[in-house]
Design a protein that fits this description.
Elements: H1 3-27, E1 33-37, H2 44-60, E2 64-68, H3 75-82, E3 90-95, H4 96-105, E4 117-133, H5 141-150, E5 156-159, H6 165-177, E6 182-185, H7 189-197, E7 203-207, H8 208-216, E8 220-225, E9 251-259, H9 264-277, H10 281-290, E10 293-294, H11 299-320
Parallel strand pairs: 1-2, 1-3, 5-6, 5-7
Antiparallel strand pairs: 3-9, 4-7, 4-8, 4-9, 4-10
InterPro entries: BUG, Bug_dom1
Family: Belongs to the UPF0065 (bug) family.
Protein name: ABC transporter substrate-binding protein
Length: 325
């Protein structure tokens, strides 16, 4: 066969393959999608993500099945996501911890937040709250600081694992108040708040979504919020900024990500579906109940947020002296 003819056949085969791939992407999804949440069932992220997953499934015409893979500050689930085939059938939840804080908390992170994963859309943001066991002789941040200074190293501070936003917020709290408190990492926020309610733990910081039922039932007391504005569902609770820790702000955020290499048509279709899912009435109702802001974005906007947050949290990690190694 002449060279020109062979080249023509090769070009035709390449075009045919590209057309077939394009058609396959246009048909995506053709089977259920797995959404990896790198935290335990019942945790704040899990509670918020489940109705979003249901709504996302309705938008895409295929079930979106949540798979909880907690452990190591979100690293276990995020690494599993990064290692999944880039076909759009495994997606995940990435947040302030897995996409920003972990990069400076761990010297050898088994994934790169910007190279191993592809951002799809920002989805949620919310404040954290500082809560305490009912028997602790402190009803606000200043009283907690005074008690901790009188009892150095004896006040226990729980968190959702080393390197979590709650852990870092706790380290910042110790730094800002000039106190020495004992950090107690848990595998899940639910385990921590149960121990807090039972009196085995003194204080902890966590997402509103994960601890609100315990606050509402009176099993724990709340001392402050980590956002600069008060939490809508807890309007009587002052912020730490209002309580004398000027400029103290830790606001958690998260969104949908995929393994790197997922075709752009799939990313775009998933992005549009996320934006619609956040408008679902059940999603909006729960977000309002838990004071969660639903904030969709373009993939590029989400990527820019991650790029800006990595150095910001690196500076805060250095300032607080926190380390997961």
């Amino acid at each position: 066969m002449p060279i020109i003819a062979r080249r023509a056949v090769s070009l035709f085969l390449v075009m045919l393959a590209a057309t077939a791939a394009g058609a396959a992407r246009a048909d995506w999804p053709e089977r259920p999608i797995k959404l990896i949440v790198p935290y335990a069932a019942g945790s704040g992220p899990d509670v918020v993500l489940r109705p979003i997953a249901d709504a996302l499934g309705r938008e895409l015409g295929q079930p979106v099945i949540v798979e909880n893979r907690g452990g190591a500050g979100g690293i276990v689930g995020t690494q599993a996501l990064a290692s999944a085939p880039p076909d759009g059938y495994t997606i995940g939840f990435g947040n302030i911890v897995t996409l920003a804080i972990n990069k400076s908390m761990y010297a050898k992170l088994p994934y790169d937040p910007q190279r191993s994963l592809a951002p799809v859309s920002l989805a949620i943001s919310n404040a954290l709250v500082l809560i305490a066991r009912n028997g602790l002789p402190a009803n606000n941040v200043q009283e907690l600081a005074a008690y901790a200074k009188k009892n150095p190293g004896k006040v226990s501070v729980g968190s959702l694992g080393v390197g979590s936003s709650a852990h870092l917020a706790g380290e910042m709290l110790k730094s800002e108040t000039g106190t020495t408190m004992l950090h107690v990492p848990y595998k899940s926020g639910q385990q921590a708040v149960v121990d807090l309610a039972g009196g085995q733990l003194d204080v902890m910081i966590d997402n509103v979504a994960g601890v609100l039922p315990f606050i509402r039932s009176g099993q724990v007391k709340v001392l402050g919020a980590t956002s600069l504005k008060r939490v809508p569902v807890l309007p009587e609770v002052p912020t730490l900024d209002e309580s004398g820790l000027k400029g103290f702000e830790v606001v958690s955020w998260g969104g949908i990500v995929t393994p790197a290499g997922v075709p752009k048509p799939v990313i775009d279709k998933l992005n549009a579906a996320v934006a619609k899912a956040l408008l679902d009435s059940a999603v909006q109702k729960q977000n309002e109940t838990l004071s969660v802001d639903a904030t969709p974005s373009t993939p590029e906007q989400f990527a820019s947020l991650i790029a800006a947050e990595i150095p910001r949290w690196a500076a805060m990690v250095k300032q607080s002296g926190a380390s997961a190694d």
